[in-house]
Amino acid sequence: MKHQEPVIRFFLLLFLTLILPVTAFARHDNSRITGKVIDKPTGQPLEYAIVELRDKDSGKFVASCATDSLGKYVLTVREPGNYTLKASYTGYSQMTKEIAIEPSEKYRLTFELEEPSLSLEEVVVRGLSEGERVARLAYNVQMMETDKYKSTTLDLSQVVDKISGIKIRETGGLGSDINVSLNGFSGKHVKIFIDGMPMDGMGSAFGLNNIPAGMAKRIEVYKGVVPIELGGDAIGGAINIVTDNTKRTRINASYSYGSFNTHKSGALVEHTTKKGFYFMVNPYQNYSDNDYKVNAKILDFATDNYLPGTREVRRFHGAYHNEAVVLKLGVTDKKWADRLIFGFIGGYEYKEIQNASTMDFVFGGRYNTATTLLPSIAYEKKFNVLKGLRVSLNGNYNFGKSFAADTVRGNYNWLGQFKPHDNNLPGERSYMKYHYRDRNGAINLKAGLMPAHGHAISLSNTLTTFSRKGHNEVESEAQLSDRYPSENFKNVLGLSYKYDYRSVWNTSIFVKNYTSHVEAYVDSDDGQSVSHHSRTDSYFGGGIASTYFAGRFVQLKASYEHTYRLPTSRELFGDGDGLELGTSDLKPEASDNINLGMTFSTAGIADHQLTADATFQYRNVTDYIRRTVSQTKGTASSVNEGSVRSLGADFGLRYSFRDLIHLGGNFCYYDMRNMTRYKSGTNVESTIYRDRIPNQPYMYGNAEAGVTLRDVALKGSMLDIQYALNYIHEFYLDWPSYNGDSTVPMQLSHDIFVSYNFGKTHNFTVSLECRNIFNEALYDNFNLQKPGRSFGIKIGYNFSK
Q1: What is the mean pLDDT of the chain?
Q2: Domain that holds residue 310
Q3: How far apart are CA 208 and CA 157, in angstroms?
C-alpha cells in the first residue's frame, strides 16, 4: 500500500493542474492571433522564434510566445485596440506588423524572415537560444554557457562547481575521484550525462574532471525531477553536458602549465562539408605530480604510535596522467538521416594511490591503470509520415580494462619513510596484481510526436549493462568468485505528455518503469565456497511538472515525482582495487520529490540584464544508500539507511551590463536528516534519530565578478578579468550524536583568472590564473585535503567560421 499513495496523489495533482488553469483562461471574449514564422528563401519553419505583441500607442508589452517545431504561434488578446506584432529569430532581421484587434475575433499573420548582411556595428535581434529553450520547460533546470571559461585551465568539474546548488567534492588533486553534491544529495544520487547519454560507463579517462571546459557548449542542471529524455533514475537531480555540434569549421589547440608540475594540452579539428560529411578529432592529455602539501598525522615507526598533532608534509606518491582521443565521423542533412555520427573514445590513465579513503592510511607503491575503448553511434531523424515525429538512437559500449597493483613489502608514513614488513610479505594493504575488465554498455531510444498544436508526446528507453570479470595473477588459483562475472542490467522506460497553453502555461505528466537485475558471486571468509546473489526489481513511478509565465519577466515552476534510484555497479561490486568495496544486496531507493521554483529575468531586452532565481526542494527517501568509511581499515562501502528527509533551498542572482561587466552569486542551504526513529526490530529510539546525515555539506555558496575590456594595447584585443569566491560551512564528519566534535572545518577560498585575446578574430589567447589565493587549507570527502595555492598559465589558438 505504501506505493499506492504516491500514485493517488499524482493523479489528484494532475487533475487540478490540468483543469484549473484551463478554467481560468477560458474567457469567450478573447481574440486570438495565430500564424507562422518561416525562413523566406526556403519556406522552412523557424522553431523558437519570438513573437511579441505591444500596444501601438504606448509601446507597453502585452504578450509574447515562442514558435513550435512547425513555426506556429498562438497569442491571446483580452482587450481590443491597435497593436504591433514583432517576430525575431537568431541571426535574422526582425519584422514588425500592425494589427487592429476587435473583440472575439481570430487573426492569422505569417512572418517571412531573412538573414541580413550586417556591418559590425549593426545589431541582430535574436530569438531564444538553445539554453533558453530548455529553461522554458516545466522542469526546474538551470543553464550555464561555458564560453567565458574556455580560455582558463579549468576542467568541466570545476566549471560545474560554479553553478547554484552544486558542490564538486574531490579526494585530491588532478585525476582524483570526484563527488557531485546537488540539492543536498551527492555521489550516485546525482546522474551525469553527456549529450543525453549516461557517463557512468565511459571510463575514468573520460571523466568530468578530465574533460577540458572547451569541449562543452553549455551545461544543463536539473534540480529534482529529470525529464524522461535523459533516461535516468536520479533522486538528487541530473547534470547534462551538451557538446558543440554545430556545423561550423573549428580548429583550436591549447597548452597549459601549472603548480605541482601540472601539464594539460588539447586540440580539436571539426568540419562539415557542403555535401554534409562531418568529421571531428579531439585529442587531449593531463599530467600532474600532485605533490602539494598537506597537514597529516605522522606514524612513528620506532614506537608504532602517532606523534602529537599534525605536521605539514608534501605528498610523494600521487602522480597522475591520462591521454584520450575523441573521434567522430558521419553525415548530416540526408533524406534518411538528419544526423548519423559514428564515434570512438580511446583513453589510458595511470594513477598512483597516496592514501586510502581516509588520510590515516598512507601508501607509497600502490597504483592503478585503466584503458577506455568506447565505440558509439548517434542517429537523429525528423519524419514527415506523422506530424512532428522525431526519432533518435544513441548507443555506446566500453571494452575497457583495468589493473590494480599492491606489491610493496612494507609500509610508508607521511614523511615518506619506509618500514619493511616483519614477515617480508608483499602488499602495503593486500598483495595484488589484479586484472579486471569492466564491460559497460548503454543504449537510448527516444521518439517524439506532436499530434496537434500545443500537444507533444515523448517516449524514451535507456538500457545500461555492466559485466566484470577479473583475476589476481599473484594467486596460484583464482578465487571462486573470479570464475563468474558480476553483472548488472538496468532499464528505465519513460512516457510523457506535454500540453502547452499558448506559451503562457505548460504542463508535462510522465510515467516511468525502473527495472534492474543483479548477478553477484561473493567468496566466503575462508575462500572455500562462494555465495550466489541474484535479484530482479521492477517499479513504477511518475510525476508532473508545470510552469507558468507571469508576464514577460517572471516564470513559476512546480513539480512532483515518485521515483526510484537503482544501485550502481560501483555500489554493488566496488572498484576492484580493494579500497572501494561492493555491497551486492543493496536495495533500490524510493523517494517522493517536490520542487518549487521562480525565476525573474530581464535577459535579452536591455543593456542591463538581471536574473534572480529561487528553488525549494523536499525529498522523502526510503532505503537511502549512504557511503561509509571504515576508520580502522580505510575502506569505503555503501549501506541502506531506513528513511531520510531533506528540505532545502538555493538562491541565485546574476547581473550584467552589455558584455562589459558581470556579477553573480548563489547560496544554498539543505537540512538532510535521518528519520528512522527506532533501532531495527525494536521499539528503542535510535540515538541518531533526526541527526544530520554525516559527511554532507549543508550550507555553501559562490560569488563571482568579471570585467571585459576591449582594444587594450592592440586594436581588436580583449582583456578579461574574473574573480571567484567559494564558501563551504563547517559540516559533520560523523553522526552528531555519536561524535559531534568530528567536523570538516569552514572553508573560504578565492580565485582570479586573467585572459588576453588578440588577433583579427581573437584567435590567440594567453591566460593566467591563481586558485586559492590565500593558500587556505581546503578539505573534502572524509577530511581528505585538497591542493593549496596554485598558479597556471595557458596559451591557446582558436579558429572558427
Answers
A1: 87
A2: 131-800
A3: 5
Say if residue 512 is in the same domain as residue 578: yes
Distance CA 562, CA 2 (A): 12
Report d(CA 170, CA 288) in Å as an integer. 15
Q: Could you give the dihedral angle defined by the CA atoms of residues 644, 649, 650 and 653, in that order, rounded to the nearest 10 degrees? A: 170
**pLDDT tens across 357-388, in order?**
889 899 999 999 999 999 999 999 998 877 77
Contacts 24+ apart (CB under 8 A), 21-25: 21/501, 21/505, 21/507, 21/548, 22/501, 25/76, 25/501, 25/504, 25/505
- The CA distance from 439 to 399, in Å, is 6
**Distance between first and last Cα of the chain:** 60
Last residue in a domain, options 95, 127, 159: 127
What does R_g of the chain's alpha carbons equal in angstroms?
28
Domain edge (last residue) among 127, 156, 184: 127
Q: Find, among 114, 115, 109, 113, the residue nearest to 97 by Cα.
A: 109
My answer on whether 154 and 114 are in the same domain is: no
Could you please report the per-residue DSSP string of 714-771?
Answer: STT-EEEEEEEEEEE--EESS-HHHHTT-EEPPEEEEEEEEEEEESTTS-EEEEEEEE
Question: Which residues is 560 bridged to in the sheet?
Answer: 544, 594
Helix (H/G/I), strand (E/B), else coil: 156: helix
Pair 117, 141 in one domain: no
Cβ neighbours, 10 Å, residue 425: 10
Q: 609 vs 6, 271, 600, 657, CA distance in Å? A: 41, 35, 11, 6
| DSSP characters over 640-652 | E-SEEEEEEEEEE
* 17, 154: one domain: no
Over the range 218-237, which residues count as b (16 or more CB within 10 Å of their CB) and which as e?
A: bbbbbbbbbbbbbbbbbbbb
pLDDT tens column, 535-578: 999 999 999 999 998 877 899 999 999 999 999 988 998 887 78
pTM of the model: 0.82
